[in-house]
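User: ok so my PI wants both of these folded by tonight, can you help

Assistant: No problem, let's get them done. Here's the first:
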Amino acid sequence: MAKKNYIIILLDKKWIGKFFQNRFAQYFHGAKKLIDFDIEVIKIFLNHQRLIARYNLILSGRNGIFKKTIIVKAEKKIGFFGKPAGTKTDYSTNIFLREQKLDNLVPRPLEYYQPLRAFFYEAIEGVCLRQLSINRHSQEFMDFIPIVAEAVQKIHCLKNNKIIVNGQHWENKQHKFYLFLVKKYYPFGFNHFKNLIQACRDFKIKNKNYFRSRFQSLRLTHGDLHSGNIFIVNENIKLLDFSDASASDPLSDLGCFFIHTELMFEHDFHQNYKEMTDKMKLLFCRNYFNRDLSDSDKKIIYYYMLSNLCRIISYASMDGNKHKETMEANDLLEKLIKIGEEKIKTSY
């Protein structure tokens, strides 16, 4: 399949029309006819490797005409480091969580279409948690932190033997990949970034006894937990995008969520973002652990915050390179690296 063919196919109204004609009754109980639909591109990213699009369907049934919206996520290649395609992991994890009676936490999966590595699911009618921060609704955002913590804790109670184990071997490969991206797309900051990666490795070696004991605690983890992947639906939440789900240390999700939220607060509430970040962490941990944080918890969460910051920087370098605002992108990357360097100075 040519480089962009999967995108062309999924955005081709004639092809996707035939695709849905054979499936709409299977997807939506009571639907009798597909009257019309339109296609909306949400995002094409990672150098045309991944697509997210929305299909707005008009259907008719016994009770008249009604509308449904389908989201598709597709990717050109299999996952990084020989992992399964992220879309397949996303689909299978959603199915697994529904089997575990946690269907209230995820969207309704419709189908995984292997030829295009495309995952179709019913769109969620809600508001992205990230939007509350963008709109400067700080208290509303904080009000949902206990709900998020409790939902994540339920998922972390599960083991899924069919999912890939994300241990030290995978972490080493990930770090090498992050270095590759920054060296290619942001060579100016490569040496500083390399120091961040080395700091991650050194910290883990220095505290190896804490991490060794965590190997027995591997559970199903989201892998990319941040407010952009959390939707508010009727005062509850749903979690999206399990593309990076794996059997891993549950605290990796906390580190991911904490660093993403800290960076978001730094942008949206610059004057008091540190105070807000501390409050967010306290709220989350109280509802997740139901106990005080141990010294090992703090060290491990710190490590995963720093490691996830390295991931954010590496992908931001690739994304920034594709746009004309190179100077603005470089300013952002320099800022992110400085945040990392500050975290190293204040490490546990």
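One down. Here's the second:
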Amino acid sequence: MIWSKPLAFPSSKKLVIAMTLISLHGCTTEPHTADKETTSASEHEEKKHVNLPTMKVYPSVVAQKITFPGKVNALPDCSVSVTSNISGKITSIRVVPGQSVTKGELIATLDDRQIRAQLLQAQAPLKTALNAVAQAKIALALAEKNLSRTQALFDKDIVAQKDVVAAQSQAELAKSQVEAAEAKVSEVRTAPSQINTQLAFTKIFSPLSGLVAHRYLNVGSAADPATPIVHVVNLNQVIVNANMPADSPSNPRVGDFAEITTVAEPGVVYRGQIKSVSPMVDATNNTVSIELLSKNDHLRLKEGQQVNVSISTSSIRAVLIPETSIVPGHDDPSELFVYVVKDGKVKLQKVVTATKSGDSIPVIKGLNSGDEIVSKGAYGVPDGAILDRGTAQR
């Protein structure tokens, strides 16, 4: 029988030492790898380069304003709903919305056939009465001529006194007949006159120069004094009714000027003069009613349009920066920042701003005179990124 040699195993002490060394080697290897990754990320961030426009900023005196909403309205006598004076069917309308009209221009006509027939009937008695007046005047002329001849004969003792008296009576009768005929003419002439007035009412004219804002009826529609046919407005000058916060530091007075702007026309400013300031506060919304008069030469302001009214309150010393340079805070969007150029890098700087002035934002805290800032395009740029130096704007 052959016996093999027993297998040799390391002692338990040696085994423990070997396993410990392996574990220590694994622990030292993992931190070394993490340090490498952190260093690589840091180096990558430091190597972030940006090419952005910059500008230097300086403080200046900036007028502060309070802005509140307003509404455009036409002047009281420059917005009219045009109606007919009589009832009738429309036979023509000569205007459309947006069309320019002048005062006295024909806008629409009504069916006048029935009125014209009435006029013809009323004119027949008038012709008869006029003929009667003409005949009475002829008779009066003959009677007066006969009286004159009879008086001459009487002066020559050719005729008697009674002939003169008879001639005088005849002349007076002829005269009274003329007066009666003329009275009849006046009487029968009243009816055609009234009908002519009705006939004139079948034509509707514009009461003012302006633009047709609305057209309510069409050909064939029934018109009456209570139903408007068109609406005409003149907006060469407009009234702006605004509600200023009662707690505003501004103290506007009649005759002062304010700025009027619209969302539809960015950068366009209308100048309005204050015409009235209410002495009472509207308790519902704690505002004071203000009325302004503004020119509207190009007719860009429309009746009923919402606008913004700005009134100066005070002046402050601030640094004006473009709105595009403002960056909202990452954690709190209400916080505002700008990127300031320092040592070739762009650094986030928290700022405090005032009310917007035109296209610029006044900064009252956070920037110093001569600071160089990124003027636009900085959103999302890492804090501390290296700026590839270009030419700074002034």
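The chain has four domains: 49-61+317-387, 67-76+236-315, 82-109+203-234, 112-201. The chain has a mean pLDDT of 85. Good luck tonight!
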